[in-house]
């Protein structure tokens, strides 16, 4: 049993205790070797650990072939991954999840995002109304949590008051509180994240990477680079360095979504808080019915992918009026409350079909990509994509 200490050491007798503790169990040699190494790795945080166990097997010496004194040897090595400076372009859910996991491994991470603040697909728009604001969750409407690690993350958010259940969407639906972007904003606070930073170029210099910003800024060098962008934007960067990864991104074509944000002086005569797909609309919800929102009647109406594609280049004002008229028809009355706000937002890259891989990583170039265009258009899958890419980088 050997280990290279980082800042903690133990007496040799403790190593013997670890070995005997695991050896007393019903064991196989391969598992015993790995368990001893993993225990030392987890508890001493060394730079590296190696375990070799040489043993006689009774099944060989006591019966069958009766191979007297024949011994078997098994080894298990764990080596610490050298800390790297890593740049992530895109600070949405997948990018921040990747950064979070990489920092736990000891890497230094910097993120750049062209958005004005944290949100990505979980963005919330604040519309001024007098001395207050009306929040509109105009991106993702809710999320679910099925994978064990993501459920644990959601439980931590819940304990900190960042998310809450929203049964109106479906039984296992969660939303950010007091706005959909609350979990993303909390993740970004713990990172070196730079917003309003439009990345124009990713340049390879020797074995390192540099980032070129729209304002002329140059950042780096970085040991590794990650693209946490929509597929179409990632493909533009990947094409210069890895054609296979670029082809994967090109194949994941996104579908657009027009979203209208509408506020009223009084509650609309609509009994339900959620309207399921109907005609040109893929989703409509009473935003103020979500936990932690102010009471002002606010609706988010999202057009279907087909309608949005057909009207992709239409004027935003006309789109907003069309979707507002659709909502009025759902109310089924002529005497409607006064409208306080109406606007529309176009998501060019809203949803995609899942790709066969959860994350992309070129170990030779130290270049990777993650995002919901790889696993599927869900918040949980974006988080998993970023986390799995970090695991591939770490190994």
Report on this structure.
By secondary structure, the protein is α+β, with helices and mostly antiparallel strands. Helix content is 31%, strand content 30%. It has helices spanning 12-23, 29-44, 58-61, 93-104, 148-159, 182-189, 231-238, 243-251, 305-310, 316-331, 372-375, 379-394; strands at 2-4, 48-56, 71-79, 85-89, 108-112, 125-129, 132-136, 163-165, 174-176, 192-194, 199-205, 208-213, 218-222, 224-227, 254-264, 274-275, 281-286, 297-303, 339-352, 360-362, 367-369. Strand 4 (85-89), helix 4 (93-104) and strand 5 (108-112) form a beta-alpha-beta unit. The mean pLDDT is 91.
Key features?
five-stranded antiparallel beta sheet, six-stranded mixed beta sheet, elongated, 31% helix, alpha+beta
Chain-wise SSE layout:
Blueprint: E1 2-4, H1 12-23, H2 29-44, E2 48-56, H3 58-61, E3 71-79, E4 85-89, H4 93-104, E5 108-112, E6 125-129, E7 132-136, H5 148-159, E8 163-165, E9 174-176, H6 182-189, E10 192-194, E11 199-205, E12 208-213, E13 218-222, E14 224-227, H7 231-238, H8 243-251, E15 254-264, E16 274-275, E17 281-286, E18 297-303, H9 305-310, H10 316-331, E19 339-352, E20 360-362, E21 367-369, H11 372-375, H12 379-394
Parallel strand pairs: 4-5, 4-14, 5-10, 14-21
Antiparallel strand pairs: 1-2, 2-3, 6-7, 8-9, 11-12, 12-13, 15-18, 15-19, 16-17, 17-18, 20-21
Mean pLDDT: 91
Strand order of the largest sheet: 10-5-4-14-21-20
The chain-level structural class is alpha+beta
Low-confidence segments, given as residue ranges, are none
How many DSSP E strands? 21
Gyration radius (Cα, Å) is 27 Å
How far is it from the N-terminal to the C-terminal residue, by CA? 22 Å
Query: How many helical elements?
Result: 12
- Structural shape: elongated
